[in-house]
C-alpha cells in the first residue's frame, strides 16, 4: 500500500501543471471562467443587497406585505448563495497567485491600502447581511427602522467594496494615465488614489451600479415567472405575478440608463489612450472597436438591442392585467418602433444614408422604450395580479437568461480589451506566463 502511495506521489510530482492548463484551454481560460462564475453570483448579491432594504422601506411606507416578503426572499437568496460566489472568488485569487505571480503581487502591494479597505467593507457588509436576515422575525416587527438600517448597512458597504474593485479594474484597463507604474513595494496612499481615480473610474462605477440593479431584476422577473407555474395557491400566484412585474419595472428602468453611461465610458476610454506608436498606441479603446475585441462589442450591442426588444414585449404582454387594457395600444406602437430602430442600428445597413444613422436609431429606440415604460408605469397602478399570459412568462424567462449572458460577456469584453497586457501599457505584465513581447509603446 505504501509503495502504491509513493508511486502516486512520484507521478504527481512529474506533472507539468502549466501544460495541463494549456490542454484544458489555457491559463486565461481557467482563470477567466472562475472569475465569471464568481461575478455571476457577486453581481446578483450586490443588486439584491441594494434593492432589499429599499423594497422593505417602501413596503413599510405603503403598508404592502408583498414588498416585505420580496425583500426577505432577496436576503435569503444572498445568504444561501454567498458561499458559492465566495468559493470561486478564493479560487480566482489562488489561480492569480499561482499563474500570474508578478502582476498579482504588484497590484496587491500598489493598492494595499484600498484592498484593506475593501476587505473591511466586505466584513461590515457580511455583518449587516447576516444580522439583517437572522433578526428578521424579531426586528422587522418590533423595531422596523433598526432592521431597515441593517439592510442599508449591507447594501452600502458591499457597494463600497464594488467601487474599490472597480477602481483597480479600470486602472488595469487604462493603465492609469499619469499614475505611477506598479511595482513590488507598497505604494504611497496618494499613488494608490491616483491609480483608483483613473479616467474610466466614474463612468464604470455608474455603469456597474445600474447594471447590478438591472440584470438581477430581469433574473428576478424570470425566477418569479417560473415560480408562478409551480405555485398552488391563488395568493402565491398573485405574489409571483406581482414580483415579475417589479423585476420587469426595475430591469427596464435601469436598462434605460445604460446606453448613456456606456457612451460616456467609451469616450473616457478613448481619451485615456496613450500616444506614440506600437501595440499600445491606440489603447484599450482601439482594440475594443477595431481589434480582437471588436466582435465581442458587436455581439454585446446585438444583445442589448434584443434585451430592449424583450423588455418592450414584456411590458406589452404585461399590460393586459389592466382591467380596461389601458395603455396596450400606445405600448404596442412604442415597442414596434423600438424594435425596428434597434434592429436597424445593428444591421449591415446601419450606416445608411450617413455615418451617424446608427446612433440616431439607437437614440430613437431608447426614447421609444422610455415612452413605453412611462405608459406601463401609469397603468400598473390598477393592475390585477394572478393570471399572466403564457407569452408574458416566456418573454421574461428569455430576458432573464439574455441579461445574464450579456452581463458576463460585458466583463469578458472589457478584460479582453487590454490583451496582451494585464495592466495596459506596462510591458512587464502580460496575460500569459511568458516573456513579454517586444515593440510596446511606452
Automatic annotation (TrEMBL):
Q: GO CC annotations?
A: cytochrome complex; plasma membrane
Please indicate if the UniProt record lists Membrane as a keyword.
yes
Q: Name one GO biological process term.
A: aerobic electron transport chain
Question: What are the protein's UniProt keywords?
Answer: Membrane, Transmembrane, Transmembrane helix
TM stretches of this protein: 36-58, 79-101, 107-127, 148-168, 210-229, 250-269, 296-317, 329-347, 359-379, 391-412
What is the protein's name according to its record?
Uncharacterized protein
Under Gene Ontology molecular function, one entry of this record is: electron transfer activity
Q: Which domain of life is it from?
A: Bacteria
